[in-house]
Amino acid sequence: MSNVLEHYHFLHEIPELGFEEFKTSAYIAEQLERAGLKVTRGINKTTGIVAEIDSGVPGPVLALRADMDALGHIIDGQPCARHTCGHDGHSSVVLTAAQEMLKEGTVKKGRLKLLFQPAEELGAGALSMIEGGALDDVEMILGFHLRPLEECQVGQAVPAVIYSACSTLEATIKGVPAHAARPHLGVNALDAAVQAVQAVNTIHLAPGLTWSVKATRFLCDAGVTNSVPDEARVVWDLRSQENAPMEVLKAKVTQAILNSVAAVGATADVVVLKEMPAAEIHDEATDIIRAAISEVLGESGLTQAKTTPGSEDFFYYPVKCPQVKAGFWGLGTNLVPGLHHPDMHFDINSLEIGVNIFKACVRRVLG
């Protein structure tokens, strides 16, 4: 019997935020070492792990990537970490596949690298792995993600999930404090922030492009109710199906914020909190995944490629390392009510399908 559910249940109970996956990475590394894989811990002085199966025979270098971090939530007023994006499932699948492939002698030529990456949700984990040299010798990298029920059901898999670019911008808006009885002596940062939100809402890109921008956080409190607040912070979430329009959108949003707050006498400092590039997927990698899905699930289990407004820091790998061919697929798990929902859950028995699809991919490249 596969160990995937054993790994999943353990990892699910120890959710940890990005770059804090200490228990998670320790468990994964110990399991890999116990199976006999060569393991390097602490990639780029983080919780990142690289494990390797070397056939000893010349051939390509293929990498499988899994993310490890959980999401931060505020539930019943209490901050907590919770696995609501399925990264515990991702790690369990790649860990189990690695154990089984070493035991079965799947890698007959070249080398297989297993990347267990921290901090995907922060948009910083893939960059950290790249900086740590994890992709220096890799020719192809494959990743995957559990899919929501409306996209893909158990018994199905998506050969290519085409993610969007995203950027998170924060504006710190400065006004001038004053007594609420004498507002003419101050500059109300709350008013300026409202102006900024409305100004950003008037932005337009070309109608043929797929994009969105919306305010997602608004913080302003003078500490009392009879004072004009002198500071407000607003966060915007930006999305674009392509990378080039994202640069245009960021510039338009920044200018709209600066101009609108200046109109009421305030100033703003706009910074990018995090960003992830749009998908860059290679046909060769997708063809391998498509064939593997058909082998495991039959033609009826193979869906069309799907586009999503979600984002993935996985795509820093092909963007920053253009010599690496990237493929990214989706596993049907009957996931509801949705990714990042505090009560997200899915059919965990579907993880076994993920193990088998990854093994079929590796056989096609290194078998």
Automatic annotation (TrEMBL):
Domain Peptidase M20 dimerisation residues, every copy: 169-257
Task: Check the record and name the SUPFAM superfamilies matching this protein.
Answer: Bacterial exopeptidase dimerisation domain (SSF55031), Zn-dependent exopeptidases (SSF53187)
Q: Which residues form the signal peptide?
A: none
Superkingdom of the organism of origin: Bacteria
UniProt keywords, alphabetically: Hydrolase
Give one Pfam family, short name only: Peptidase_M20
Q: Entry's CDD domains?
A: M20_Acy1_amhX-like
Q: What is this protein called?
A: M20 peptidase aminoacylase family protein
| UniProt source species | Pantoea osteomyelitidis
